[in-house]
Amino acid sequence: MNDIASKGHILLSLTGWDPDVWIEELSKTAPERPVKLAPDGDTDPDIEYAVVWKPEASALAKLPNLKAIFSLGAGVDHVFATPGLPDVPIVRVVSPDLTTRMSEYVVWQVLDHQRLGPRYRAQQAARIWEEDRGQCAAADITVGIMGIGELGMDAARKLRCLGFNVSGWSRTPKQAEGITCYAGPDGLGEFLASADIFVVLLPLTPDTRKVLDKDLFARMTKRGPLGAPVLINAGRGGLQNEVDILSALDQGLLSAVTLDVFQQEPLPPESPFWGHPKVMLTPHSAASSVPSSLIAPMTAQMDAYDRGEPLINLVDRKAGY
Ligand code: NDP
Ligand code: OXD
C-alpha cells in the first residue's frame, strides 16, 4: 500500500519536449503529487498546479482548483498564447543553471565573432593558411545587451570580466557597475549607437514583437573593428523580422548574425538561413531547461504556496513577461 499522503495533482502539458524525463523527475522529487499528462475532463478537480511548455490549447481553461501555472522556461510567451488562459499566478524559471548556460552561449558567440571564427572556419574549409594580424582585442569592442534582465545581466558581467565594454537596454532604468545602461524608447537611439555586437535577450511581448527590423538595424550606427554590427538573438524568433535580417546582411548593415531562435521552429529545411555564409545558427539550444535543476525548486514553491507563503519569480501579466 502507498503510504505517501497525496497532495494536489500536477498537470504536465508540453509540446515538442519529451515528457518522460519530466515525469521521472517530478515523481522522484514530489511523489506525493500525482502527475497527469491531460486533465480527466475539462473540469478535473484534482489538478492544483500546471507545469507547462507550450501547453495544449485550452488544457488550463476550466480547471476549478488550479492554483498556479509554472512555465518550464524563462520566457512565458508560450503561456500567454494558450487559449482560455485562467487568471492564476504564472511563475517563470529563474535558475542559476539556466543563467549559466545562457551566459556560456553568449560568451561563446561573442568570442567567436571577435576572434574571427567564421573567417577561419571558411579558410580551413579552403585549406588557406592566413593570419589576420589586425584582429581586435576585447577592449576594442562594445557588446550591447538588448534586454539586460536576469540572463542579460549575468552575461554582461561575464563579458566585462573578459575585457569587453558592455552597454545594456531595458524597459525600466537600471544601474550596474561598469555597464552603461539605457532604458525605454528614449534610450534606444543612444544604445543602438553604442555597440559593435548586439546580444538580444528580450522577452517576446506585444511591445517587442518584430523589434529587430530594418529600421532598428539602420540605427546601429557604430562602424567599429568588425566593420558593421553583429546580431546575436537568443531571445525569441518573434522578436525578429527575418526578411529584414537577410536584407541587412546583403546590404552590409549587419556583418554577421548568430540566431538561436526563429519565427518557425524547427527551422524549415528550405529556410535561406541554413546555408547563409554570414549566419551561425543553433536549434533553440542556447539555454536548455534541465529537469534535475528546475523541478525541485518548483515543487518546493508549490509546498510553500500551499502553506500560505508567496510565490517567487512571478510573471507581470500587464508587462507580459
Ligand atoms: P527578464 O525578464 O529577467 O529580462 C528581460 C529584460 O528585457 C529586462 O531587462 C526587461 O526590462 C527587458 N525588456 C522587456 N520588455 C522590454 C521593452 N519593451 N523594452 C526594453 N526592454 C525590455 O528575462 P530573462 O533574462 O530571464 O529572459 C529573457 C528571455 O530570454 C526570455 O523571455 C526568453 O524569451 C529568452 N530565453 C531564451 C532561451 C533560449 O534557449 N534561447 C532560454 C531562456 C530564455 P526590465 O529590466 O526593465 O524589466
Ligand atoms: C526559455 C527557453 O524560455 O528555453 O527558457 O526558451
Task: Give the overall form.
Answer: elongated
Strand order of the largest sheet: 8-7-6-9-10-11-12
- What does the largest sheet look like? 7 strands, parallel
Helix/strand order: EHEEEHEHHEHEEHEHEHEEH
**Rg, Cα atoms, Å:** 22 Å
Report the total helices.
9
Strand tally: 12
Q: End-to-end span in angstroms?
A: 44 Å
Strand content: 15-25%
The helical percent reads: 25-40%
The mean pLDDT is 96
**Uncertain spans:** none
The hetero molecules present are: NADPH dihydro-nicotinamide-adenine-dinucleotide phosphate, oxalic acid
Structural class: alpha/beta
Written overview of the protein:
This protein is α/β, with parallel strands linked by helices and 321 residues long. The protein contains nine helices and twelve strands. It has helices at 19-29, 77-80, 96-114, 117-125, 150-161, 184-192, 214-218, 242-251, 291-306; strands at 9-14, 35-36, 47-53, 68-71, 90-91, 142-146, 165-170, 179-183, 197-200, 230-233, 256-259, 279-281. The strands form two sheets. A seven-stranded parallel sheet has the order 8-7-6-9-10-11-12. It has a five-stranded parallel sheet with strand order 2-1-3-4-5, covered by helices on one side. Helix 1 (19-29) packs across helix 9 and helix 3 crosses helix 5. The longest helix has 19 residues, at 96-114. The mean pLDDT is 96. Residues 73-75, 93, 287, 289 line the site of oxalic acid.
